Amino acid sequence: MEANKNKKNGAMLQIWLMFLVMGVVLASGFFLIPKTEDERQKMMSFLGTTNTGEIVTPVADFGSFAPSSPSVKPKWKILVAETNECSDVCEQMIYNMRQVHMLLGRSTLRVERYFLTDLDKISDQELENIKGINPFLNIMSVKPQALESILLETSAAWDMKSPRYFVLNPEWKAVLFYTADHDPNGLLDDVKHLLKYSPMR
After folding, report:
1. Whole domain around residue 24: which residue ranges?
2. Please, which of 30, 79, 119, 139 could form a disulfide with 114 given CB 3.0 to 4.6 Å?
3. For the stretch 135-151, what's the b/e string if a residue is b when 16 or more beta carbons lie within 10 angstroms of its beta carbon?
4. Cβ atoms < 10 Å from Cβ of 171
């Protein structure tokens, strides 16, 4: 009888310990959930990620470029930013961005492409050429000072002597950036990953 009683008490103790461990894990998970985008970015930096792009921290707000009355559902965005003349490198990056967009398959409609540039530094002929070989590309004018102010306090700030890719979430917040040296396949993988784990709009 005594042996059975001890066995029963031991089993109950194991059950209570299991509930205690589960409670601690759930409570820890609750308190560790990032409440803001900045907190999420810090956690991503701390834990490490599989992305090939560089994390923008804190996130950069490109909301000043958002249309005042969007007619479609908010989408993720890939953009190339170039405030100088669009060189061969710039044109190649715009082309790579188009290819990445096409390779998204069924998710293509969840993403849109942008080219941010100083239109005063691009000839009309060059602009028409870019539009001609890049259908559905949204082109917006930006002055170097305006772009610099958006990125000034972030990890994505740079001298703007060369173009860069940025990935923006549907709220126009830049979360990743890439230099011209980054492999476009890495950009494709990152965008696929973001779309996979982001809610459908």
Report:
1. 1-33
2. 79
3. eebebeebeeeebeebb
4. 13
Q: How many CB atoms lie within 10 A of CB 32?
A: 9
Domain at 147, CATH number: 3.40.30.10
What are the tens digits of pLDDT across the range 1-14?
Answer: 555 555 555 556 66
Q: What contacts 108, CB < 8 A, 6 or more positions away?
A: 101, 102
Number of folded domains that form the chain: 2
Q: Round to whole Å and give the CA distance between 73 and 199.
A: 12
User: Whole-model pTM?
Assistant: 0.74
Q: Mind listing the pLDDT tens digit for each residue in 53-96?
A: 999 999 999 999 998 776 678 899 999 999 999 999 999 999 99
Statement to judge: residues 170 and 117 lie in one domain = yes
pLDDT, one tens digit per residue, over 142-174 is: 999 999 999 999 999 999 999 999 999 999 999
Same domain, 67 and 146: yes
Structural tokens at position 4? 């059975």
42, 136: one domain: yes
Three-class secondary structure of residue 53 per DSSP? coil
Query: Token pair 């989408």 is at which residue?
Result: 75
Residues 7 and 70 occupy one common structural domain: no
